[in-house]
Specification:
This protein is about 30% helix and about 20% strand. By secondary structure, it is α+β, with helices and mostly antiparallel strands. Pfam families: Transferase.
């Protein structure tokens, strides 16, 4: 989940935000599978694009280079046709529209490199002839309905559908984007994206995907079908002087994760399941929280579907992990800061522009009979408290509470 300051909530489950658990049931969902690569294509911006001036990464971009995990998204679509039909009829449309989209979003076809002026600075470089890796594959060994469902299914099988970013033998050179389309013969297909977070945030990646979709829907796609992004990263200024503190905290967080052990991606018993709160669930939660608020004469605060969903998940996690007493707990979520910058930056800015909100409670407060209401009020007040704040000030507060945060929400999929 991702808070963008609006009151819209949609049920969306990007690949990287699925909840992973270990189960011994549903053996059918743990079938081992394989992927056969049919084509490996390089997609170039079209019309051909000459080399562009390097774009220096802002401090909000470069911090993500400290984190080795890219952003992964996985979407499923019904496609009850043979693989040959997809290759003959659908693939040309997808590649042509992607090529046009990359003409506007050319940083995704370039590379991230250290700046020639400093080893501590990075830039995105696009040179004529740069391209995006595009893989077409066919899946065997598991049913499409099974692997695309919400029940627990093999995490290892899901990872077969997501491409890896191209690596470089030249040291600090990073690839921004890889795409993989996997066909399930006569059943469906998946589109997997792997994006280096240093290039853009969740809002930016969805801006790219929506632009590609718009071009793909057009009978005869042209550049006019695509809304161009705002690419000037110089609008992001470190007014709070927090760049180095962010980098130090990111390295510290990476060390904490290393001590706790790496995520067991290869464990064949690991499964992913999707848990959904439907509209009626959310309405009941909001009504319950609002009633308590009125009964107890509590002041009004931001109360949305996002707030009550976070409150519910947070309390469930606290109970499941067995926290109790006066232990300090925090919940954090990225916040789109484009409209909050002073002065505001364009809404179509393509890069990272994320702040964060933090809600803080003690375990005993979360576990009481009014735990959801207490959590919702704290989250709502935290969101209200963002008004008028400097981005650096907000990020610094997040860093200071890093060791206490037990739940960090992520993903920008709208």
């Amino acid at each position: 989940m991702f808070y963008d300051g609006n009151d819209r909530t949609q049920v969306h489950t990007p690949f990287h935000s699925l909840i992973s658990i270990k189960l011994s049931q549903r053996k059918s969902s743990l079938l081992m599978a394989s992927v056969r690569v049919l084509q490996e294509i390089r997609i170039f911006p079209s019309p051909p694009l000459p080399a562009q001036p390097p774009q220096a990464l802002s401090f909000l971009d470069a911090m993500w280079l400290q984190n080795s995990q890219p952003v992964e998204r996985l979407f499923f679509y019904n496609f009850p046709h043979p693989t040959s039909d997809f290759i003959d009829h659908n693939l040309p449309i997808l590649t042509k529209s992607l090529s046009l989209t990359l003409r506007h979003f050319y940083p995704l076809a370039g590379s991230i490199r250290t700046s020639p002026d400093s080893d501590n600075r990075f830039e995105i470089v696009y040179e004529e002839g740069d391209s995006v890796s595009f893989i077409v594959a066919e899946f065997t060994g598991d049913d499409f309905g099974n692997i695309s469902g919400r029940h627990p299914r093999s995490f290892k099988n899901l990872r077969l559908l997501v491409p890896k970013l191209a690596s470089s033998s030249y040291g600090f050179i990073y690839s921004p984007l890889s795409i993989q389309i996997t066909v399930f013969q006569n059943q469906g297909l998946s589109i997997g994206f792997t994006i280096n977070h240093a290039v853009c945030d969740g809002y930016g990646s969805m801006q790219f995907l929506r632009s590609w979709a718009a071009a793909c829907r057009s009978a005869k796609p042209t550049l006019d079908d695509i809304c161009p992004p705002f690419l000037d990263r110089s609008v992001i200024i470190d007014t709070h002087g927090i760049r180095q503190k962010i980098f130090d905290a990111t390295r510290q967080f990476k060390e904490i994760l290393k001590k706790e052990g790496s995520f067991p991606f290869s464990d064949s018993n690991l499964v992913s399941a999707t848990f959904t709160l439907n509209k009626n669930h959310i309405l009941r939660l909001k009504e319950h929280v609002r009633t308590k608020q009125v009964e107890e004469g509590k002041p009004s605060y931001h109360l949305s579907a996002f707030v009550v969903t976070c409150a519910y998940v947070w309390r469930c996690l606290v109970k499941a992990r067995g926290y109790d007493g006066d232990i300090k707990l925090c919940l954090g979520s990225p916040v789109d800061w484009r409209s909050r910058m002073r002065p505001p930056i364009p809404s179509n800015y393509f890069g990272n522009c994320l702040g964060t909100f933090l809600a803080e409670l003690k375990a005993v407060q979360m576990l009481g009979k009014d735990g959801i209401e207490v959590a919702a009020m704290e989250i709502g007040k935290s969101i209200d408290g963002l008004k008028g704040k400097d981005l650096g000030e907000i990020l610094e507060a997040g860093i200071d509470n890093l060791e206490f945060t037990i739940l960090i929400l992520g993903g920008g999929g709208r």
